[in-house]
Every structure is written in C-alpha cells, then in structure tokens.
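Dear colleague,

Thank you for sharing your sequence with our group. We've completed the structure prediction you requested, and as agreed, I am returning the results in plain text so they can be pasted directly into your records. Please verify that the sequence below matches your submission; if there's any discrepancy, let me know and we will rerun it promptly.
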Amino acid sequence: MTSSYETIGRPVGRAEGPAKVTGQAIFPADVNLPGTLVGKCLRSPFPYAKIVSIDPDSVTAARQVLGVHAVLTADDIPPHLVGRMLRDMPILARDVVRFAGQKVVAVAAEDDDIAEEALNLVQIEYEELEPILDPSDSIKPGAPVLHPNFTDYVGIPDGAQAYPNAAGHGQWKNGDVEQGFAEADLIFEHTFKTNHQHQAYIEPHASVVFLDNTGRVQTWVNSKMPFQVRQQLSEGIDMPTDQIRVNPTTIGGDFGGKGGFMDTHLGFWLSKTTGRPVRMAMTYIEELMAGNPRHPAVMTFKTGVKKDGTITARQAHLVYDSGGYAAFKPQRGVTYGSRCLGPYKIPHGHIDSYVVYTNQVPCGSMRAPGDPQSIFAAETQIDLIARALGIDPLEFRRKNLVQDDDASPMGHYWQNIMGLRTMDAAVKESGYVDAKPKTPGKLTGRGMAVCERHVGAGSSTVRISIDSDGVVTLYTALPDTGSGFYTVLRQILGQELGVAYDEIELENWSTDDVDFETGVGGSRVTHVAGQAVYRAAQELKRQLVTVAADSFGWPEGETGFSQGQVTAPGQTSVSLADMVSRSGGLLEADHTYDSERDEDITVFCVQIAEVDVDVETGQVQLTKFTTAHDVGAILNPLGHQSQIDGTVMQGIGYALTEDLQYDDGHVTTLSMGEYKIPTMPDMPELRTVLVQSESGGPTPYGGKSIGEQGISSVAPAIINAILDATGVSIAEIPVSSEKLLRAMEGIRAID
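Please find the predicted structure tokens below.
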C-alpha cells in the first residue's frame, strides 16, 4: 500500500474553478426554461403597520398590463406560515407588516420592466404602528407584543416565552455564579453592542420554480441545504416531499446566508397560477433591506476576579435581534452564545441567551453564527479587566486559559487542549512583546483575542464509481458554495485510489437521488462528507483488491494503488479500467456517514492586531494582523489559507467598516457602494501560524476545521489594539473614525 500522501497536503488549485471562470457553471438565474416568467414583489415601506386595504381596482389594473400573467396578494394563497424551524413568516404579508421590505404583493410578468410597471399601479393603505427597533426594548415589561399569536406557531422552542417578544431562550449553567461573585475581590460589568453584518455574497438569492406537467414541483435554488429547502417548501404548499425535486446548481457565495427558502414558496404560487416557470432573483437593494444578515446583539458581561487575576465567576446576558421574524434561524432553540464565556478556567458560569423580535430585517446565519457577537464582548471585556488590574492582557489570559485536565466554564473537558501553544505561536510571530513602532501623528497599539470552536457534524452520503474506461466519478448532493470542498473531496478520493484529483469527475445529485444530505455549513463538510468519501473509497478498494486476487492471485495485503494503477510487489501494474473489465462491469461503492457533534474536540484560534490611529482624524489603519490556528492535518494548504484570509477579511469589516445603517426602521445603506466591505487595499500584512496537534481531529487523515473560527476573534483583537493605542474603550462595533475621534476628544477634555 502507498505509505506517503501523494495528493493530501498539496496546495492544489480548485478542480471546479475552470467551469466558473469560463461561464460553464450554472447558477439559478442561469436556468432559462421555455416560457420562464420574472417574479417581482411589492414590499412594505413601513417597519410596522396594519394593512388597512389593498385597492382591488388597482390590482385589476395591474393584472391588465400587457405581459403580466399574475398578480397575487395574501388573499390569493393559503394562509400558511413558513420558516426553517420556527414557522412564523407569511409568504405574503396578511393584515400586518413587521419590517420595511416585507413582501406584500407579487407579480409574474414577461420581463422586469413590465413587472415593475404593474407593481407601481397597486395601491395599499397602511396604518403605521410604533415600531420596536432596539432588541433591549423588545423584552422590557409592557413592550408591545409583535406576534400575539406566537403560541399557535409550529416549531416553538422550549423557553421561548420567558419574555413577550422572545422567539427563543437558552440557558447554560455551571457551578454557582453568586458564590463565585462572593469569592471575587472585584466585579466588572460591561455592555456591548454589535450591528447587522450582511454576507455580501456575489450572487444574490435566486430561484426558479416550475409546477411541471406531471404535477411535480421542480426547483433550482441557491441554497446550500437542498433537503431542508424541500422540507420547508413541502410544509408551506401542502405537498409531500416526494413531489418536490430540488435540482443542483452552483452557488455564488454563501457565508451562512443561503440555507433557507427565501422566495421558493412565492415562486411556486406564481408558477401554479400562471402554468409557467417563474424566476425570482433579488436585487442588492432587496438583499440589504430584506435578506437575512447576521443578528445584531446587545450583550452584558459580568465577571468576578481576584486581585491576582484569577477569574472566579462569569455571567453573560445576550440579546440577539431576530428582526420581524425568526423564520431564517436554522435551529429550533437558542444555540447562540453557548460558548461565549471563553476558553478559560472559570468555576462558576451562567449564560442567558435570547433571540427576540423587533421591527428590523429578519436575521439568519452568517459565518460562525452567534460567535463573533458574543466573543467580541467577552474578549473586549478581558482586556478592560486586565488593564484595570494592572496586568498585561497576555498574562491575564495565560493565567486563566484552560489546559489539559481543566474544565471549561460550562464544565466540558476538552481533548488535547492547544490553547497555550497557539497563543505562544501567535505572540512569537507577531512580535507582541517587542517595542512598538513610533510614527509622528499616530498612536500605535497591539491587541489580542482568543476563541475556540467545535468541529461540525451531520450526515452525508456519497457514491464512487469506476467505469470500464477507468473514469472515476464522485456523486454527492452537496451544492458547491465556492469554498473549495469539491477539490478537497477529490483529493481524498484521489489519494486513496492513486488517481489525479483533477481527473475525477463529479456529479451532483438532486433530492430525488439520495435519501438525505445535511448540506453545507457548521464546519462540517470536510469532516462528514470527507469521511463518507474516505470510507466509500475503502470499500471500492476492497472490491478492486478482490478482483486482483481472483484474477492474478495477488496477496490482498500487498495490493496497492498508484497513478491510476493497481499494483503489487514484483508484478506488472494493471489499470483501473482493466480491473473493472475483469470484474464484469461498473464498480460502485456507497457510504453514508453520520456524526453527532463531539463537545470534547475543540479548535483554538489566537489573533493579534496592530493598529495606527491618527490623532487628528481618528482614522484606524490596521498595519499587521497575526492569526494562529490549532489545526490537525491540512488537506489542501492553498484552500486552507484562503479560508483563513476570508474569515480575517470579514472580521475586519465587522470591526471597522460594515455598517448597515437604519433611519426609523428603514435601511439606508441600499447598495454595496454604501455598505463598505473591505477590499484588498484594506488588508494589512497578514501572518498566519499553523499549530499542528499530534492527535489531530475527526476528518480523514486527522484534520479539524478552519472555515468559521477565524472570524470570531478578529474584531476584539482590533478593538483591544485601539484601546492599547488610545486608552479609549469601544463598546459598539463597527467603530468609525468619527466615533473614535469623539471618544478620544472626550478623554482629552477630561484630562
């Protein structure tokens, strides 16, 4: 057998790349069935209002526009509520709108211009209501109840009614926090806020839906979870799942935002009404006002410490703003913030986490959902406490960081804890303890932050085949989200069969072709799908070895695979095609891999930022950023590094530039020109350190995960660097130069 890796660990380019750059990849908006109509929506101009009436004469006039094939209001479709888990959102608003941008009327027409002409004719009378825009106000006693029929909804999580507008409530406890606070010499309490963050993918939400002539629903949708979309559509249109087919397409970026249904239900009703396929594609204006961005949050952390820096207790109260609906949240309960107390030895911990309704845009998942918010608060407070104690923030963390045989704040005992090693590697690479550079007119600071995250789990099914021409094909129902895992899966298969990774064919299954696939997200793909590929490859290898033994008498234990050949010591190699021919035909192997999340396995990340702050303008320049990761085996160094670079860039935007602004409940940043995501000129010198653990992780060859944890500690590292440079404590992100300058001027005025 091959003793060294020929494919694994090589920095190879993406096998799926050429199809994308040559235009061969098919995205949902590219699906152009005969007779396809364009679907458009008229959206609410108010964040909270009663729908008094929709003028029937204006609807009739819209229907009479040449080229219009359907105009639908809520009265034209069943009153079903939809959602990924909690079903609380109407397909079209009925009686009330709960955010500015909610869909009220839908049109299917020959083209965009005709659809817009029809929508402009529809007259709607609203009665404005006083909106709730602050999540903290949402759960105050006496707050207006935004969903008075909440208890009738399907999918209500336990504890959701702790407060009137709480869509979900979760608690995690360990020890006795009151005892821990009593043991403390000092108690610190701070409140932090974060804003929305949009996923800013290249391709907006899009779908094509067609009720075909057999009565089956055919859909093409840029969702990373086709089976969940099928289930959600089934529940919303009263049709069994076996009558719905979600067809594979390429996805132009996800970052957590494309896990749900978005416009598929409405596309179905427009298609059913017209008898034609209907394409619905959101504009960037619609994405920014009605997509499903990262939840804003208000978070209060209370931490007790002894004078020597020992943490005795920590308590977190987290309020995540779900917006007008919770339909886009992927879990039934509240999972956000469950690890937010940090990777520290804290004997007494308590986390109270809420997802609440407001009258802002409904929120959903984005990379490491819930973690960047809570870790920003947790790690920013760590620096504030350290400085108040007169202890270097590095030493404060080092004193309290969990090591082997230490329990986490929630009482977990993690395996092979790499926190200190990762921290030391980051400190060394960054020059954290070196003298800071001095630039006239600039204040220089360094800051660090630490986080840890689990490795994802789920279910994945694959098939591997080899035909009589020796062509190896991998079948999977995983959609291509652009992260490069199609290449990694090919690398695993190529390594096991001795085949060049870029010669392996890949075929996408629809939801008709396999029983279930969890889908992409949650740092699960390399682990779950990778194990499915690896184990199916082992089965296929056993079949080939059996053929070799039967045909040539080769010893099974000495038969191996190299360069598309089956080999044995002292024997002439035989091609895979020849072996398949000798087997009598096509060779295939299927494998379904199921995994539950293992709380004992964690991945550490330590990040150190260096900033220059202009004393005259408050402008922050990120000059250097060091990111250190606890990793196992790295299957594709090029793809691995691109994931790190992407998480850091998104974290920089979260901290400094990405500000989805509101005015009385209306989104005012309605273009990607106004919503400032970082670009390459904004990237500092980026230094990456990979700390490889001996025991590795659960993926094939001992890998862990890399796609999500890298974003969570970026913002607090930057904010802590600003604190180090200026003495200004930042409690709300993103931080603009204007905000920082005002704070700096406030400190000067006090001095």
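Summary note from our side: The longest strand covers residues 311-323.

Kind regards,
the structure core
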